[in-house]
Amino acid sequence: MGAHMAQTTTSSGGHEPGHGMALLIVDMISCWDFPDAAPLLAQALRVAPNIAALRQRCRRAGMPVVYANDNRGQWRSDFRTLIRAALECGGPGARIARTLAPAEDDFFVLKPMHSAFFATPLELLLRHLGVRALILTGVSSDQCVLHTAGDARMRDYEVIIPADCVATESAPRNRRAIAHFEQVMNVVTTASARVRLPRRAPRR
Q: Which one of 14, 33, 174, 193 is most buried, by most CB atoms within 10 A?
């Protein structure tokens, strides 16, 4: 189990630059020990299998998979430490961490604020990988996913947010967030099983 730290990545980790599309998984690795985490954890647990299934499709298509996780103010931490802590915490949080455990050729960034683009190397990583379209998944739909989607659109990325792969503290709030994506941001929110992925280029 492992992933490439974007800050130190100098190769594409098995992904050929220019693939065009990447999967971004936001804030799904956690001990869920922050205030009022219980309702969000329950909703995250519900969508985790959908994200895992989509991730497998993306991997089969040769697409990069990028994890963007809140560093929770732990400036000496790294993504492997977060995974280890989530597993050691046990319970539903550990179940999510096991379901979404990264592969060796996945990438990750740690973010200090809501957006996965703010004060992180995500844009440089995506440029290196030749990505112009992002599939956004994770939590919470009306905070970190929302801010990441806005920053992605300002950078001219095409954005897809599968409705069954994002969650927030309650189903009604999540429906309002999805309506905002559709009606205000003009973002596609089709179910993950219906998201069209690029064909994997044949090996030369």
A: 174
